[in-house]
C-alpha cells in the first residue's frame, strides 16, 4: 500500500492516522469485549494480537461473564483462565446454545464446576474410570 493511502486510513487530512496496533492498552480493551470464538480468531491476525490474546487477563474477563469470581482455586488448579474457558465454560455454552435458553443460578454453576473438577482430577490420576461421580448415574430411593 502506498504511504499516502496508508496515512489517510485512520483519520482525515494528510497527517498520520491512528492504527489499532499503535496502543497495546486500547487493543487489549477491545479484545476484552470479544467472545471466546472471536478472541481465538483475533489471535490469528498477527503476532501482536496473538501475544495479547495469550494474556490470561483477557480469558479471566471472558470467564467471569459466565462463572463467579469465587472460582479462582479451580483456575489455578486447571492452569489458567484460558484453559478453564476451553475445557469447562465453552462446552457448557455450546450445549446451552443447542438447548432452550435457561438461566443458571449461581449455585447450579458452582455445583457444575465442582463436579467437573472432581471428574477432571480423577481422570488426571489415570486410575481407570472416575468412580466418585457414579452416584449421579443411578437413581437412589430415599
Automatic annotation (TrEMBL):
Gene3D superfamilies: 1.20.1280.50. GO terms for cellular component: SCF ubiquitin ligase complex. Residues 24-62 form the F-box domain. Pfam families: F-box-like. GO terms for biological process: gibberellic acid mediated signaling pathway; regulation of gibberellic acid mediated signaling pathway. SMART domains: FBOX (SM00256). PANTHER family: F-BOX PROTEIN SNE (PTHR47750:SF1). This is F-box domain-containing protein. The lineage of its organism: Eukaryota, Viridiplantae, Streptophyta, Embryophyta, Tracheophyta.
